[in-house]
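Exercise 7. Given the encoded structure of a 412-residue chain, write a plausible sequence.
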């Protein structure tokens, strides 16, 4: 093979290899280069920001308050006992029902007391007759003394006799009054209006009349309207507010101490009253002082002995921020909320929380009027979000949702 022939074969082999490299997977090399150039110039697509529900904080005029636990108690409680002894003749107690003041509840056999009253009447009449005769004797002595027809001693005896008979009349009147009082005590009546308990002594039983606890207990009565709520106030609250404004100063200073009360089965504090008593010393064992609120109870729902939740206003009303409780997060014991900042960026905001009010949580510090917070969603500070504005109050959201659903149904 000549040198010229070898050169031609090598050139043909090189051309064939180049042609094979120009086609990979059936795509020409120049096409692949064009596609690679287009991919390099095309921008990378980012995912859209997450949509989260947001709401503007609610601002209301609220008085700062503290919450306590207490117990409902009757303003007046009576242990009904017999004041005279005898046999129970009739019982007219509506057990568990309401009674009026002066209503007859028990009747003790009155016959022995009627006899005693008749005897007292007779003794009084006898004393009055003796007094009348003593007055006649004294008149006679006064006429005869100047003429010397009687001795001075006789006159003095007649004066003393009249005074003695007058004392006997007074004694007989007192005995009659006592007998009349005993007869009235045979009718055991309700001393106050309220709700009566069960009957402890039934008809036919003998009761003992005496003073104090020795007398037979018949039943008990508690007043219904108004009622008291007793609760204990901690030392911090007392020092910060109540020590400067005691209940007895309310009328003179024009300051009211409102109290709101709720039962265990009630939401919020539907019952309103005022603080009317504050103890004179703190219990060193518990660090609390006893307080009492008075509440109107026209429907009788506040039964003595019930557990009560008490909210006591500690200062004048002021602008207060409220939020939905589900917007609050916890970070190592600290409470926080996520705030919608400039450019729809998420911001971390620590907050100090207070009590619930009408379904919303009071924020003592950390938020201002006009702030918009994220209600819920898996987002973190520094992220950009797509806010969806909703109402802060949960019940308003349900109303808005129903309205939107109705409008969509109408459009369909």
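Solution.
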């Amino acid at each position: 093979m000549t040198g010229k022939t070898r050169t031609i074969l090598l050139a043909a082999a090189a051309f064939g290899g180049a042609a094979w490299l120009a086609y990979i997977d059936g795509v020409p090399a120049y096409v692949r280069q064009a596609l690679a150039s287009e991919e390099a110039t095309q921008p990378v697509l980012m995912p859209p920001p997450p949509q989260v529900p947001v709401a503007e904080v609610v601002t209301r005029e609220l008085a700062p308050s503290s919450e306590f636990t207490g117990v409902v108690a009757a303003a007046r409680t009576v242990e009904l006992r017999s004041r005279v002894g005898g046999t129970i003749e009739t019982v007219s107690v509506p057990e568990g029902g309401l009674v009026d003041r002066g209503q007859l509840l028990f009747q003790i056999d009155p016959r022995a007391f009627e006899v005693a009253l008749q005897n007292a009447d007779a003794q009084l009449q006898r004393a009055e007759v003796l007094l009348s005769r003593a007055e006649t004797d004294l008149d006679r002595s006064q006429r005869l003394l100047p003429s010397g027809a009687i001795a001075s001693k006789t006159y003095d005896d007649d004066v003393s006799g009249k005074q003695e008979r007058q004392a006997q009349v007074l004694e007989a009147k007192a005995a009659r009054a006592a007998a009349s009082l005993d007869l009235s005590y045979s009718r055991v009546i309700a001393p106050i209006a309220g709700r009566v308990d069960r009957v402890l002594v039934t008809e036919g039983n003998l009761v003992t009349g005496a003073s104090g606890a020795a007398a037979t207990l018949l039943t008990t009565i508690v007043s219904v309207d108004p009622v008291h709520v007793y609760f204990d106030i901690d030392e911090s609250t007392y020092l910060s507010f109540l020590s400067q404004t005691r209940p007895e100063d309310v009328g003179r200073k024009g300051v009211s101490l409102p109290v709101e009360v709720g039962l265990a089965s009630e939401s919020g504090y539907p019952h309103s009253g005022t603080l009317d008593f504050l103890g004179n010393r703190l219990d060193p064992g518990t660090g609390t002082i006893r307080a009492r609120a008075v509440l109107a109870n026209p429907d009788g729902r506040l039964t003595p002995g019930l557990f009560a939740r008490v909210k006591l206003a500690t200062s004048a009303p002021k602008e207060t921020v409220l939020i939905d409780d589900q917007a609050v997060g916890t970070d190592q014991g600290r409470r926080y909320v996520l705030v919608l900042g400039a450019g729809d960026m998420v911001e971390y905001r620590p907050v100090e929380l207070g009590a619930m009010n009408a379904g919303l949580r009071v924020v003592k510090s950390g938020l201002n009027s006009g702030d918009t917070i994220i209600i819920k969603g898996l987002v973190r500070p520094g992220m950009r979000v797509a806010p969806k504005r909703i109402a802060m109050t949960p019940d308003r959201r349900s109303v808005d949702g129903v309205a939107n659903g109705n409008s969509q149904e109408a459009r369909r």
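Remark. The CA atoms of residues 17 and 190 lie 124 Å apart. Students should compare their own answers with the one above.
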